[in-house]
Design brief:
alpha+beta; FAD/NAD(P)-binding domain; Enolase-like, domain 1; five-stranded antiparallel β-sheet; two-stranded parallel sheet; 5 helices; oxidoreductase; TRXR1 reductase; GSHR/TRXR-like; redox-active center
């Protein structure tokens, strides 16, 4: 089991070539299959060292825990590298879970997707009179799978808290219909996901006039 800490994969001088483990020569990272197994069947890798996977501590912890359970506990559960809630803690937070719109199009095709989006105005911004069209929310739905939500994105206050909650719903198979049937807590930022009705394909205006 290989564990690499940090953003640089320091794999050039640890003897991988001796045992035949392949690495991506461009970045030093290790390609693995969906069970974190390298091209050498008895050698596994987890964490930031993985080629094409997210560089996030909670992801590495989850992958390591599940790998140990598969190797020694008879489990078959694999790490989900797609539906990972992620936040950028900038002054205006950005949160996401699942596919980006671009990756969803590559995987499913634009014709099989419906993207809902809107600008919104947080309640706490009304008193200081901040711009009511700065925050943004978007969901990506797979039309071929009951409009299942495969991507969720939000730019606004407390985006991390909002994303963490919806991540569990996405893991449970959240659909656009279920979102529409969910009663929102007014006035919260998360409520915006229960009231979306404008698709990107429609080209309709998404600017808001009030909360």
């Amino acid at each position: 089991v290989l564990i690499a800490i940090g953003r640089d994969a320091c794999t050039k001088n640890i003897g991988l070539q001796t045992v035949g483990v392949e690495i991506n020569e461009k970045n030093g990272k290790v390609p693995v299959n969906d069970e974190e197994q390298t091209n050498v069947p008895y050698i596994y890798a987890i964490g930031d060292i993985l080629d094409g996977k997210l560089e996030l501590t909670p992801v590495a912890i989850q992958a390591g825990r599940l790998l140990a359970q598969r190797l020694y506990g008879g489990s078959s559960r694999k790490c989900d590298y797609i539906n990972v809630p992620t936040t950028v803690f900038t002054p205006l937070e950005y949160g996401s879970c699942g596919f980006s719109e671009e990756r969803a199009i590559d995987k499913y095709g634009n014709q099989n997707l419906e993207v809902y989006h809107t600008l919104f105005w947080p309640l706490e911004w009304t008193v200081p009179g901040r711009d009511n069209n700065t925050c943004y929310a978007k969901i990506i739905c797979n039309k071929q799978d009951n409009n299942r939500v495969i991507g969720l994105h939000i730019l606004g206050p407390n985006a991390g808290e909002v994303t963490q909650g919806f991540a569990a719903a996405i893991k449970c198979g959240l659909t656009k219909e279920l979102l529409d049937e969910t009663i929102g807590i007014h006035p919260t930022c998360a409520e915006v996901f229960t009231t979306m009705d404008i698709t990107k394909a429609s080209g309709q205006d998404i600017t808001q006039k009030g909360c």
